[in-house]
């Protein structure tokens, strides 16, 4: 009898859920959603939040990847595939990249990959880093995001989907297919390149886009980070404190830009001025929902699903490696908060004023700044106008796009001596001119209505509840997918062998480098004794691809060979004021797409077939090596190239010399020679 009552209760609950869904959707059909993401840490928080929602209300139709911001294409797409596999959603198509370009005449060709902002996009996928250079490349930047601090490889299961050359659906293909199919809502939580290009090429499909929700920009915001405390001495110099933007690497030249909009201001302008209704969740709102200590502790105690565990472990590593002691006031709910606000608005039909559970809303008249006054100048900074009789895309000669376009971090035009930077590229500015667009804007996160809760924001509770709900939960992590997997180190017994010439291999991880590495490993150790590998991630692959080296060595039974990570910038290319960022003066000649960085970072898709090494890049670190604090496992820290070199030199027999074989940029070798007085005495040949 009890079983019958329980069954009846379950049926009733399901029926009520269905009725609720019918009330909140159009004719009982779920809201179709497409997510465009740059796969930063908070981006997959947003993705997992959406995947957990009731599919009778919200159906995530596709994911497209923005490839010119916080992650690199090959690493980003495989992480998305693995997350979807964990969540049993291999049915969701993923679009990334493309080899198309934009002609000099301004014709947008099919399948533009979005590797470059529109202002830099030519006929190929190689190009500069005008805006992207504001994003750190190594620690705390693309290296950590590409690898998710080393957690991605240790935690996520691996399915059959992967990047594969010429088989990977492009972003524009997926956008075209899903938007052509009927009414859809788009969430943009990265740079706007993919969507901007789509709208420029397919204006006839705008009618199918019901709404665009954007995380980005700052309208009336005042940055709460980088401020001097009340009891600070007079020597304290405020940094980005009070600025509308959040470019913590570039506030001296551009205090107005926010990373997502700054990544491609012209593309964002196309989105905002498309005529499609836009709802913006800017820094104004996200600055009011920092990850505070109470939320962190509550999250730590509520990890009842694999997706919750993955998010918390990622958040914890972000906190543990944060560059100062202000994490709880500097790290905010950006993209996941946007997803929460958006779906809460969408739950109410004909919701013109954006009423929702999580944020206060207000209509504002804004535009996206793409160039700086005075307009109509020709100073070599603006490819749309410079040396052109007819502006690209037939833009107005004296219009808002015709001014100076910021060229880099230390653009002299932007820097005002002893004053606030003057460049506004990527600023979502409130204006009264004819260029204004009426946009629904989130202004503040709502407090938790439960005053007895330690969670002070309404969205905090929703986020934890949704992620921990047993409905539509992740199936397994890597160790549960492969329960018999063990982290075994394979090291040959070389004690009885007469070892040959000691060699250090310096590689930039191109496909040819891996062929050379195979060859070196196959040569008998009595002839060549491969002592170490130095990785120089300033050529044909990005730094996180060091994991391929570890996996290859594991397959060959050589887990004994140490691997050191070299500098992420060529010499004299890192910024003199903030060394984590810098220029791509030489790297810009290497294609981002097919035949370039994408294929090297994935070894043409074959890296997924390698056995998984117990060694991998991790962001684990310690005070001993200059970190602000010890992480949980500092012994797993990734050694640097110079450290590996020094350890090899210390093990040499008196009078012995090392042969260095280099097949990439010579940056690491130059640093070794610069830093060691007796280097030449131990190097036999190069």
From TrEMBL:
For whether the record's keyword set contains Cell membrane, the answer is no
Provide the GO MF annotations for this entry. Answer: hydrolase activity, hydrolyzing N-glycosyl compounds
**Pfam assignment, any one:** IU_nuc_hydro
Superkingdom: Eukaryota
The molecule here is called: INOSINE-URIDINE PREFERRING NUCLEOSIDE HYDROLASE FAMILY PROTEIN
Instruction: Indicate yes or no for the key word tRNA-binding.
Output: no
| Signal sequence coordinates | 1-21
The cross-references to Gene3D superfamilies, in alphabetical order and at most eight, read: Ribonucleoside hydrolase-like
Q: Give the family from UniProt.
A: Belongs to the IUNH family.
- Specify the Inosine/uridine-preferring nucleoside hydrolase domain's residue ranges: 33-373, 503-684
């Amino acid at each position: 009898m009890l079983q019958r009552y329980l069954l009846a209760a379950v049926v009733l609950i399901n029926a009520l859920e269905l009725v609720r869904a019918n009330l909140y959707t159009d004719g009982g059909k779920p809201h179709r959603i497409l997510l465009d993401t740059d796969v930063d840490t908070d981006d997959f928080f947003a993705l997992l939040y959406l995947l957990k929602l009731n599919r009778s209300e919200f159906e995530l139709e596709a994911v497209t990847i923005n490839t010119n911001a916080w992650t690199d294409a090959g690493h980003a797409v495989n992480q998305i595939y693995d997350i979807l596999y964990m969540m049993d959603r291999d049915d969701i198509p993923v679009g990334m990249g493309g080899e198309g370009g934009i002609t000099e005449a301004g014709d947008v060709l099919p399948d533009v990959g979005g590797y470059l902002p529109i202002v830099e996009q030519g006929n190929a996928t190689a190009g500069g880093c005008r805006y992207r250079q504001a994003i750190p490349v190594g620690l705390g930047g693309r290296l950590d995001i590409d690898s998710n601090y080393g957690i991605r490889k240790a935690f996520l299961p691996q399915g059959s989907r992967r990047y594969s050359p010429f088989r990977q659906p492009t972003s524009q293909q997926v956008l075209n297919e899903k938007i052509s199919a009927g009414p859809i809502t788009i969430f943009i939580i990265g740079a706007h390149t993919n969507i901007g290009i789509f709208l420029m090429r397919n204006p006839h499909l705008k009618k199918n886009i019901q709404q665009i929700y954007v995380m980005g920009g700052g309208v009336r915001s005042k940055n709460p980070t980088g401020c001097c405390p009340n009891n600070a001495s007079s020597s304290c110099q405020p940094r980005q404190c009070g600025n509308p933007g959040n470019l913590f690497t570039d506030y001296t030249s551009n205090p107005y830009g926010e990373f997502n909009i700054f990544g491609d201001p012209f593309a964002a302008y196309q989105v905002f001025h498309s005529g499609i209704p836009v709802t913006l969740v800017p820094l104004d709102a996200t600055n009011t929902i920092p990850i505070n200590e109470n939320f962190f502790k509550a999250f730590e105690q509520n990890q009842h699903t694999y997706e919750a565990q993955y998010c918390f472990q990622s958040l914890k590593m972000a906190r543990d490696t944060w560059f100062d002691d202000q994490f709880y006031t500097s790290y905010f709910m950006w993209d996941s908060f946007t997803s929460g606000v958006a779906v809460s608005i969408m739950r109410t039909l004909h919701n013109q004023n954006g009423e929702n559970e999580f944020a206060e809303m207000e209509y504002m008249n804004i535009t996206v700044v793409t160039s700086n006054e005075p307009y109509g100048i020709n100073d070599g900074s603006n490819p749309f106008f410079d040396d052109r009789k007819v502006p690209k895309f037939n833009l107005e000669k004296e219009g808002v796009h015709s001014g100076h376009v910021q060229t880099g971090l230390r653009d002299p035009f932007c820097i005002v001596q002893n004053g606030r930077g003057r460049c506004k590229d990527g600023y979502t500015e409130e204006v009264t001119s004819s260029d204004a667009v009426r946009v629904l804007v989130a202004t503040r996160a709502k407090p938790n209505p439960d005053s007895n809760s330690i969670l002070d924001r309404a969205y905090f509770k929703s986020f934890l509840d949704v992620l921990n709900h047993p409905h539509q939960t992740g199936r397994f992590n890597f160790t549960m997918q492969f329960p018999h997997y063990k982290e075994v180190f394979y090291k040959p017994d070389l004690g009885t062998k007469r070892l040959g010439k000691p060699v250090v291999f310096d590689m930039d991880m191109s496909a040819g480098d891996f062929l050379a590495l195979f060859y070196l490993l196959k040569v008998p150790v009595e002839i060549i004794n491969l002592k170490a590998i130095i990785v120089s991630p300033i050529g044909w692959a990005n730094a996180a691809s060091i994991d391929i080296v570890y996996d290859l060595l594991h397959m060959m039974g050589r887990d004994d060979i140490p691997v050191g990570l070299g500098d992420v910038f060529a010499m004299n290319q890192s910024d003199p004021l903030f060394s984590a960022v810098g220029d791509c003066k030489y790297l810009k000649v290497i294609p981002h797409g097919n035949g370039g960085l994408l294929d090297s970072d994935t070894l043409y898709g074959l890296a997924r077939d390698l056995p998984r090494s117990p060694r991998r890049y991790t962001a684990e670190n310690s005070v001993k090596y200059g970190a602000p604090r010890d992480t949980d496992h500092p012994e797993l820290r990734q050694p640097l190239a110079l450290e590996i070199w020094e350890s090899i030199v210390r093990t040499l027999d008196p009078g012995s010399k090392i042969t260095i074989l280099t097949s990439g940029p010579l940056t690491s070798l130059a640093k070794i020679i610069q830093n060691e007085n007796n280097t030449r005495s131990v190097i036999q040949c190069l």
